[in-house]
Amino acid sequence: MTSNNGSINKHPSFNGEGYGYLKERIKNFIEGVDCDIWNAIQNAPCIPTYLVNNVMVNKPRSFCTKGEKENVQYNLKAKNIITSSLSIYKFYRVSNCTTVKKMWDTL
After folding, report:
1. Average pLDDT over residues 31-40
2. Which distant-in-sequence residues (6+ apart) come within 8 Å of 48 by Cβ?
3. Tens digits of per-residue pLDDT, 41-52?
4. Domain spans of the chain, in order of start
């Protein structure tokens, strides 16, 4: 764990030690930013999809409702906070995860 002087505005950083401590600190940080961001991690975000030729595909952003866009944004914010907290080695372990829930579970 790398110190950030206890700032409530900067997420904790992970250097490979004290994962349990980091996990709780980052959870608290994310909940403090927005509880809906933490919900995206816990419950897997809603990725808007629609049917094209009998196949479900991701909905283009231009077709998403305001609520769908907000849900996608929660996932992106959480991914940003988590990846910004990781060393390069840990980042590459989760960089291919499509949702923040998968990322969190992988860590």
Report:
1. 89
2. 58, 59, 63, 64, 65, 68, 71, 72
3. 888 767 788 888
4. 19-106
